[in-house]
Design goal:
The structure is a homodimer.
Chain A lengths: L7 E7 L8 E6 L2 E5 L15 E4 L2 H5 L4 E5 L5 H4 L2 H7 L4 E3 L1 H13 L7 E3 L5 E4 L2 E7 L8 E7 L2 E5 L17 H10 L3 E5 L12 H14 L4 E4 L5 H13 L3 E5 L1 H12 L24 E5 L9 H6 L13 E4 L8 H13 L3 E3 L14 H11 L3 E5 L3 H13 L14 E5 L4 E6 L4 E5 L2 E2 L4 H13 L1 E8 L6 E10 L8 H20 L5 H20 L4 E8 L1
Parallel strand pairs in A: 3-5, 5-6, 6-7, 11-12, 12-18, 13-15, 13-16, 14-15, 16-17, 23-25
Antiparallel strand pairs in A: 1-2, 1-19, 2-3, 4-21, 8-9, 9-10, 10-11, 19-20, 21-22, 23-24
Helix pairs in contact in A: 4-8, 5-11, 6-7, 14-15
């Protein structure tokens, strides 16, 4: 149990040194509030893993202190870990309307129905123990995004959440620069700010520019238009709908997450849709093709997504034809380049025209570039700065940006997940570490797949395995049946019969050797089999399959 | 056996619909020449595969016709498949000096010492059967790159190889635009041209611009400079050496492929190095750190490369310190983004400064952009066009570019690997297909890993496996020993003892059920075990491991 002090502790448990699974803990004496609880997708070497969530051991140990969890917006890297978190910690959840709408959906899927969801809007203040919390409106690639001001006994902390500065946003949701200015005027102790785009000079383009590109494309398209984008990008969806209405097209939605998000966003008033614009996918044939837009998922090339299914002729309701035009309104997330281009190539092979980012301005980022970051730093004038939401290179570069603006190096904390950064009114320091890291979710198992299991999966994936079974008599130490050899993922057995027969011979020799030496210790016998077979196989074919000797005792 | 006709057949066996393993066949009556024979790296789903080479079944069937193989340059995607090709087909190999130097090295590794390597230089002509072949000097990211003119009885074919147009190349190796003009004047029947950068407008920057950036960086660097680039980019290496000599630094080389390539290039006169510039890695300590440059591999973040080993403190001779400056002089090849940024993050975490492409002009492409392609099309004025060296989207776009320049759509052939494109003096058509595709190399095995093995590896990689062994008496059909369960890559066994015990119980029930029913057909018994266990596991934990029941008969 941590010692009580008069210091404010800020503990990022996720989102530092990575883009994903954001979660930050704010602690003062007996009070803890948590900001966000995201998930991330598995790295390549995390074979078979579905999602990765943050390690919340520290919060479980301090659960009586937790007053609430505050959500900055409804993206998976900020809310995706919530069902797992709430499965273990029954804590009230505060968020804006759309964010909670999306969370509610998610909790239903996980059958978590006893969670207290509390709508909380910008410009209201909420006192929870030592903290007073206020949301500040920002711009981002999902509506209802907020920054958070946390008023603490040692000073004010501002966490930007994910943001950009868009002077011409969709739905007139301007970032509340007044509030940032006011906070800066009154004095900010610590800033935590989004580092995603810190390597990019200049400004992020306005979401409106994408709408202009849509208009240019919609006016010329001779037949159906298919737009693939992130389901959560409600502004993008709005612009597709606007362009459709302007050019007299009906909108069809395909893809489960797109349907879900549009439903939530529309019900909560985040989408303006004219009566009759949306039609059912089964009514599509009633309209000429130049009066149809299909809004869909799969902008990252996900193999099971609606767009991938269309590309590979596996979509049950939509058959693409050469006159169709596909717009990929998204950038590839690093690591997804190959999958998305596989879909694009397949679409073009079908004769469909495809417009993607390298060909037209059909996407803008949701994160602030250097000049926007400078504006926020300048308005807030924080005493201390913790760059968050970025790989190490982003955090470091963001620290340098703060120094260029005049902040002393020692007031900037390039921290890790698990770092405890303690603040008084005048000082700040990284003092120690608490447990943090990746919890791997595989099917229903949470955290039961770790390094050994992953190492085995990797080994199996590269060279397959050979199982050797021998039945031995316990009393005499003699072979009664076998050796039998079964292999999987190793070689085509039919074409490698000689190799397998030679392998069996190698094992027989080991067995007769052991019999001569009267070895009845099965562990020794197994390792002899493993060693002999491994050398034999490697010499023969330069592969190193997993070898699994099993001795049955009779 | 194909029918003899008076038509020229052009058959790409690799490099179409992909970037990699380029190989093109030119056939007229009894004569075949082959251009290039590359390799490619395995796709994500080709688990455990080392390299991928083209299927040359067609050439094996027509081997008596093959007069020679011509190499455009020494990159792996053009020469990497050669050892496998030459292991099956003893054919003379024609190439420029550096290309053959690199091939020689490669053949030594594969112990192929009886291959006839014939140096062939631009502006010479060689008659082989129905064909006369001429090399044309081009610019690319490796010296001694050439395009190929093939004079055939139906007309002249030009294959650009990989190229760009660099008016200020390193070592004054200007592309021979005169020859392209001359060929265009005389008339070109078919053009095959590099499509890699066809999506990019404008011109590719000159290699010289990278040298300017190096100079800016070298003059300011306070300590050691480490430059990581492709070993084969001899011009880049030259520019590093030039900058080192200019600013009085010694050059150390680390990384096997970098050492090999520099040796070959230097011996053949492709690198100008002053006496005393290169020093041994063991003498590095004799110089102050601001007099050292380290040239190294690992620009793609390859885990075993010298740069990655430096980043993760695993390099035996080089320990990085915070004042060191690392330049990554390369772009991430699509799919490598995550690995390279993992290395960059680690380097920055160590305190090392890292300069990479998103921060400075430390790399230029080796492939022609749109305006360069237009120039070559315009100079050559070919009657027919086959875009090559690209994914489908590139080939299609390149076809559109040719149409923008006035070529009729029907004269452009967007082909596949294996397409046979037949030409007379006035006509061209894709007539049929020959076998083509990927041959997977895993260790010493060539082509013995196919879909079933890969499917098993994928299954094993995602959910691991459970082996169930039972020893049965043949006569009575009774269980004598077992069931024993062994799992790998599935769950932590220690933490899942209950699950495994329940699983054993499920199998015992199946066995006793089968015993009651007097089932002595082991196939039925195995599939009963598999089905019961699969359902049980999926219900319990939503995973689907491979289940391998083995019955030992006594």
């Amino acid at each position: 149990m941590a010692k009580k002090t008069n210091k404010l502790k800020i503990i990022p448990l996720g989102g530092l040194g990575e883009i994903g699974k954001n979660i930050t803990v704010f602690e003062y004496k007996d009070d803890i509030i948590v900001v966000d609880c995201g998930m991330t997708f598995p790295e390549d070497e995390m074979l078979g893993i579905d999602v990765v969530i943050p390690d919340i051991t520290y919060l479980l140990k301090n659960k009586e202190k937790i007053k609430g969890i505050f959500l900055t917006h409804g993206h998976e890297d900020h809310i995706g870990g919530l069902p797992y978190f709430l499965g273990k910690l029954n804590v009230p959840v505060y968020g804006t309307r759309l964010t909670l709408g999306l969370v509610e959906n998610k909790l239903k899927e996980h059958r978590l129905d006893k969670v207290k969801l509390i709508e909380f809007q910008p410009n209201n203040k909420l006192k929870l123990g030592s903290f007073t919390i206020e949301f500040i409106k920002t711009s981002h690639s999902i509506p209802d995004s907020v920054a958070i001001a946390i008023y603490t006994p040692v000073g004010t902390v501002v966490h930007t959440g994910d943001f950009k500065i868009d002077f011409t946003p969709i739905n007139d949701n301007l970032i509340d620069l007044y509030k940032f200015a006011e906070l800066g005027c009154k004095g900010v102790l610590v800033l935590l700010a989004d580092s995603t785009n810190v390597e990019r000079p200049g400004y992020t383009m306005s979401e409106k520019t994408v709408g202009d590109t849509f208009n240019d494309i919609f006016i010329k398209a001779p037949a159906r238009i298919i737009v693939a984008t992130f389901a959560s990008n409600v502004h993008r969806v709005q612009q597709v709908i606007d362009a459709a209405e302007l050019y007299n097209r009906k909108v069809v939605v395909s893809g489960r997450s797109m349907i879900n998000t549009i439903n939530v966003a529309y019900e909560l008033g985040y989408l303006r849709i004219k009566e009759g614009t949306m039609i059912d996918i089964n009514d599509m044939h009633k309209y000429p093709s130049n009066q149809i837009v299909i809004l869909t998922t799969g902008s990252q090339g996900e193999p099971m997504s609606a767009l991938a299914r269309m590309a590979f002729s596996e979509h049950r309701k939509i058959e693409l034809v050469p006159d169709d035009l596909v717009i990929i309104s998204a950038s590839p997330i690093p690591g997804n380049e190959k999958t998305i281009f596989r879909v694009i190539n397949k679409l073009i092979e079908r004769g469909t025209k495809v417009i993607y980012e390298s060909l037209a301005d059909v996407h803008v980022s949701g994160h602030a570039c250097q000049e926007e970051l400078k504006l926020i730093h300048t308005l807030l004038k924080p005493k201390f700065f913790i760059p968050v939401h970025g790989e190490y290179r982003h955090l470091k570069r963001h620290g340098e940006l703060a120094m260029e603006l005049g902040m002393p190096r020692e007031n900037i904390f390039i921290a890790n997940n698990g770092s405890v950064i303690e603040f008084t009114k005048n000082s700040g320091a990284i003092t120690h570490e608490v447990p943090s890291g990746n919890v791997l979710v595989d099917g229903l198992g949470i955290g039961d797949v770790g390094n050994i299991v992953l190492r085995d999966r990797k080994h199996l994936s590269e060279d397959g395995l050979i199982v050797v079974v021998v039945t031995m008599s316990k009393q005499e130490g003699k072979v009664i049946a076998g050796p039998d050899i079964v292999s999987r993922g190793f070689v085509y057995v039919r074409e490698s019969e000689d190799l397998m027969e030679e392998a069996r011979e190698v094992i027989r020799e080991v067995l007769s050797e052991c019999e001569k030496k009267n070895i009845t210790d099965w562990a020794t016998l197994k390792s002899s089999i493993r060693d002999a077979l491994r050398s034999f196989i490697f010499e023969k074919i330069k592969r190193n399959p997993m070898i699994l000797p099993i001795i049955m005792e009779v």
